[in-house]
Design brief:
Layout (H helix, E strand, L loop, with lengths): L3 E3 H14 L5 E6 L6 E6 L4 E6 L9 E6 L15 E4 L2 H15 L7 H9 L13 E4 L2 E2 L9 H18 L5
Parallel strand pairs: 2-8
Antiparallel strand pairs: 1-5, 2-3, 3-4, 4-5, 6-7
């Protein structure tokens, strides 16, 4: 049976894995087919996790997840930058964002996304430390169904997240 982790133990586990080797991670999220949840696929070259998340609009969402076997060559690349934390000087980032906002209003210029990508691409992902300033991402949001070929696991995660929601939120149906 596949071990299912939830909440802080899942977050801690994934962060420990990321901290060992922060390069080449991806984080893709999409609406789930059932119950209004969200499906996420978090992957590194060594492992992949399928997550069920109750909401992307909550800073502390309820979530559960299980490790899945996945052919990493089959993961669709949505950009040139891998997921991770990149050390950023706050003043530099503020200036860049202000400049991107100004340029976005002008036509015929390089897009803000392209400029942001060009700034972040040379920065290698790092393990964040307390007190530092970091850009985290990218998170790829898609409407494509995230399938890892394991419908039973998807059903199990849906069921377990519903149980978790009912036990933690008395008003949850």
């Amino acid at each position: 049976m596949t071990e299912i982790l939830e909440g802080s133990s899942l977050t801690r586990h994934l962060f420990e894995r990321y901290s060992r080797k922060p390069e080449s991670w991806s984080f893709t999220i999409a609406p789930s087919a059932k119950y209004g949840f969200y499906d996420a696929l978090v992957s590194s070259p060594e492992e992949s996790w399928k997550l069920k998340i109750d909401s992307i609009f909550n800073p502390m969402p309820k979530m559960i997840g299980a490790q899945v076997e996945l052919d990493h060559t089959s993961i669709k690349k949505f950009g040139s930058i891998s997921y991770g934390y990149r050390k950023i000087d706050p003043e530099t980032m503020l200036k860049l964002l202000m400049k991107l906002g100004e340029e976005a209003e002008q036509k015929g210029r390089v897009s803000g996304q392209e400029k942001l990508d060009s700034l972040l691409a040379p920065l290698s992902p790092v393990v964040p430390r307390p007190g530092g300033s970091y850009a985290e991402g990218p998170y790829v949001f898609t409407n494509e169904k995230l399938s890892v070929g394991q419908g039973q696991l998807d059903d199990k995660l849906n069921s377990e997240l519903q149980k978790l929601m009912r036990s933690r939120l008395s008003a949850y149906g």
